[in-house]
Amino acid sequence: MKPLNLAFQFLTKLSFIKNYPQVSDKDLANSIIFYPVVGAFYGAVLYFIAFLLPSKLPLITIGILLVVCEFLLSGGLHYDGLSDLADGWFSGREVTRQLEIMRDSRSGVMGITALILNLLLKTSLLIVIKNNLLAMLCYGFIGKLILVITIVLFPYARKKGTGALFKAASYKHLLLCLLYLPLIIYIIYSAKLMLIYAIIIAITLTLFIAYLINKRYKGLTGDCYGALHEISQILYLICIGALI
Fold this sequence. Notes:
Blueprint: H1 2-11, H2 25-31, H3 35-52, H4 59-74, H5 79-89, H6 95-103, H7 109-126, H8 133-153, H9 171-178, H10 180-191, H11 193-217, H12 222-243
Helix pairs in contact: 1-2, 3-4, 3-8, 4-7, 5-6, 5-7, 5-12, 7-12, 8-9, 8-11, 8-12, 10-11, 11-12
């Protein structure tokens, strides 16, 4: 199925996924329906890796290895967005200049700091859920779901850019994507209610942050999508850590 393959092709570095020489805006829009599936795949891979690692390893080492595996799987796709948004947002410059800073390939102090904090939090919090398959699946799921929600709900701030390719996505794609939720909620509710609380809190807070970004820049950029992906996952992990 082309949309599913495109979702894996864009969000992962898996070499066995078929590459398509020609991809239309409609193809890209249809592919976002399967982003949460790719996210759940991420969670399953991390759970499997944690399961295979020797139990005698220090927990911090397990956390580091999980973050490394996630990085290798994604190629650090969303880390760049988090770094660029931090550089622009905390630069103290006017909005136009902030957007220019976000396009600069060089990372500043705020961007590097944001990346370090992100990696430290993931390393310390992933070990909390390493033995919980549902929690791991939701960890991957929520980040990709946030991508779909923000792509559809918020305008794009630039005339051109990677994120602009997905603006053919509509509410139809979001509604189709949300069809996963009843099944996910049922499965989670059957296990632990805290996962539902963590997902709701993380999504709500992330969308509030997206609202603030949209208010400043009159839209979101590809960097914003990547940053919100990382922020949603960190918020989810913090909620899980607090509720367990």
